[in-house]
TrEMBL record:
Region of interest (Disordered), ranges: 180-215, 298-326
Ranges for domain FF: 116-170
Molecular function via GO: RNA polymerase binding
Pfam families registered for this protein in UniProt: FF (PF01846)
Native source organism of the sequence: Zea mays
Keyword field: Coiled coil, Repeat
Stored SUPFAM superfamilies: FF domain
Gene name of this polypeptide: MED35C_1
Residue ranges of coiled coil: 54-92
Name this protein carries in UniProt: Pre-mRNA-processing protein 40C
């Protein structure tokens, strides 16, 4: 059975590679059509994707280890060259003052820092992808969910919980900012009746200015609330276009859900951003639904154009074909 699966994966990989080579000049349009044309089976596509994630992560680790090894070897050569200045009483700071400008010292330091930053970024990316982690989550409760992920394995054992706690602090900070925005003096859902007494408590008396009529004050208030709400809507639409791209829309869960056919799936991609928390839930869903419908329509149009172009190219006679008899 395993051999059959691997054979199917290899065939699928081959078809996918050919299709990508044919369409690479056209940019990123119509990826859903490309995937479905090259590999019709969802289970095979998922198996290929999982295989790619595992192998690519391992390749990246090997590349980084090789680069670090080269930097370390060059650093050892430097130590040999500096041996006259080094004895058992030499400390690292003294060595660094004299040789720190050497490119080999900088290369090792930069490579180590770069690798560490990449490992941390990938680890946090793994955490963000989990829909089960909240600001109250504990590492001991959730770590079992990640043991098979290459990004979990790439992080040192003693650092995993520390980076997890840093991520939880970031989540709490985002929640606090959202809460502060919701408790602002005037927010998107504030009513004139509720806000008028608060505004009149302004110590500078700006809300009680005799030159400002009652009708003027209320109109300015409502215009301000409207502007705030529209700004939040624009921000949320910008968030949708930044996060739910055609590539993200093409990803399908085992249950057949995507970010454009399931609001719960879409929320998993959006809720870590502050712009997500500034609108009421019902408004967020309706705006997402309109965006999803529009993106679905554009993808279908792109798929149709790709298919028509493919059919047209396939029907064109080759230069080597003999002319038809009349």
């Amino acid at each position: 059975m395993g051999a059959v699966v691997m054979t199917n994966e290899k065939r699928g990989m081959g078809r996918l590679k050919l299709t990508l080579e044919e369409t690479v000049k056209g940019g990123l349009k119509g990826w859903i059509y490309i995937y479905s044309k090259a590999i019709p089976s969802h289970s095979t596509r998922r198996a290929i994707f999982d295989h790619y994630v595992r192998t690519r992560a391992e390749e990246e680790r090997k590349e980084k280890r090789a680069a670090l090894k080269a930097a370390v070897e060059a650093y050892k050569e430097l130590l040999e060259e500096a041996s006259e200045d080094i004895n058992q009483k030499t400390d690292y700071q003294e060595f660094k003052r004299k040789w720190g400008a050497d490119t080999r010292v900088k290369a090792v330091q930069e490579k180590v820092q770069s690798m560490r930053k990449a490992v941390i970024a990938n680890f946090k990316s793994m955490l963000r992808e989990s829909k089960d982690i909240t600001s109250t989550s504990r590492w001991a409760k959730v770590k079992e969910n990640f043991r098979s992920d290459p990004r979990y394995k790439a992080m040192k054992h003693e650092e995993r919980e520390t980076i997890f706690n840093e991520y939880i602090v970031e989540l709490k900070s985002a929640e606090q900012e959202a809460e502060q925005a919701a408790k602002a003096k005037v927010d998107e859902q504030a009513s004139w009746t509720e806000s008028k007494p608060k505004l009149e408590k302004d110590p500078q008396g700006r809300a009680r200015n005799p030159d400002l009529g009652q009708g003027d004050a209320e109109k300015l208030f409502r215009d301000h609330v409207k502007d705030l709400y529209e700004r939040c809507v624009r921000d949320f639409r910008a968030l949708l276009s930044e996060v739910i791209t055609p590539e993200v829309a093409a990803r399908t869960t085992a249950e057949g859900k995507t970010a454009i056919n399931s609001w719960s799936e879409a929320k998993g991609h959006l809720r870590s951003d502050l712009r997500y928390n500034k609108l009421p839930s019902k408004d967020k869903e309706s705006i997402w639904r309109r965006y999803a419908d529009d993106l679905t329509r554009k993808l279908r149009q792109s798929d149709t154009k790709e298919k028509d172009k493919s059919d047209t190219d396939g029907k064109q006679p080759r230069s080597s074909d003999p002319p038809r008899r009349r």
